[in-house]
Design brief:
This protein is of the alpha/beta class. It has a single domain, classed as Purple Acid Phosphatase, chain A, domain 2. It contains six helices and 13 strands. The protein has a seven-stranded mixed β-sheet with strand order 3-2-1-10-11-12-13. Strand 12 and strand 13 form a beta hairpin. The C terminus is likely disordered. GO terms for molecular function: hydrolase activity. Keywords: Hydrolase, Iron, Metal-binding. Belongs to the cyclic nucleotide phosphodiesterase class-III family.
């Protein structure tokens, strides 16, 4: 299965000249599914959601999305707390945690955006229990399981953003439920690496896209990912903006899934500007 992973489009603070090249690049890759891990807008304005909706309508492949923290109205307190996802539901999707079954692969959306934990995000216990149940059911049927969320469950040392509360415990629970891939955004940084769980195995591969369109690149170029999911092997190709104005491949890495967990076929340094993000849980 071929997944294109977009994140942090931030309409309202996007490079307008990159919209057409991004759409053309996604179309040329002919993915089975496009996943968007949140932050469609900069300030959850109606006009920004309208631009995001127009972008989605131009995609030629099926898509699955979850909201990000910027899709909640930060600067309008009443809307933020009383109807935080009203704009997102009207313009993007009423379902905040969609599910898509592909051949041999189940993709589960998980909403980590929260009006009370605006930047760091929040794991809602009841919703997370439902996610684990769906993951276990898919894994028991012999399917690979990928989770799409906005907030990462691990991040590089020195990040200026707070990590979502309970991240390590959530990763452990997802690994036990059979989740093999987690696709996230939020940091505007490209990262991909296994997460080492308590049993010493790298059972989850976290793939973090940067920003597809935002002007807030944070020292990295605008990018997106192509994820090719096989029975035992997953390849990730980073596409980033080139001086010519289009998006082109900038590096590739592949991981093979073994009984001992994910094993890299090529060093993570094969991906441009990639830095390892291995975090071993404390005993």
């Amino acid at each position: 299965m071929r997944l294109v992973h977009l994140s942090d489009l931030h309409f309202g603070r996007a490079h307008p000249e990159l919209v057409a090249p991004l759409l053309a690049s996604v179309s040329a890759l002919a993915p089975d599914l496009v996943v968007i891990s949140g932050d469609f807008t900069q300030r959850a304005r109606e006009s920004q959601f309208a631009q995001a909706r127009a972008f989605l309508d131009r995609l030629e492949a099926p898509w699955l999305a979850v909201p990000g923290n910027h899709d909640i109205p930060l600067d309008r307190p009443l809307s933020r707390f009383l109807r935080p996802f009203a704009g997102y539901r009207r313009a993007i999707c009423r379902d905040l945690e969609p599910v898509c079954d592909l051949q041999g692969l189940t993709v589960l959306g998980f909403n980590t955006a929260s009006p009370r934990h605006w930047q760091a995000g929040h794991i809602r216990r009841a919703r997370f229990a439902g996610l684990l149940a769906r993951a276990r059911k898919a894994a028991a049927a012999g399917r690979q399981v990928a989770v799409v969320a906005h907030h990462p469950f691990t991040q590089p040392d020195g990040s200026d953003k707070a990590l979502i509360g309970g991240a390590a415990e959530a990763l452990e629970a997802m690994a036990c439920a059979g989740v093999g891939l987690i696709l996230t955004g939020h940091l505007h940084l490209w990262r991909t690496a296994p997460f080492v769980t308590q049993d010493g195995r790298a059972r989850i591969l976290q793939i973090q896209a940067g920003t597809g369109l935002s002007t807030r690149e944070r020292g990295e170029p605008n990018d997106f990912g192509l994820i090719e999911v096989g029975v035992a092997r997953t390849g990730i190709t980073r596409y980033q903006i080139a001086p010519t104005g289009g998006f082109g491949p900038a590096g590739q890495v592949a991981f093979r899934r073994t009984r001992g967990g994910w094993v890299a076929e090529a060093p993570p340094a094969a991906l441009v500007q990639d830095r390892p993000m291995l975090h071993e849980m404390a005993d």
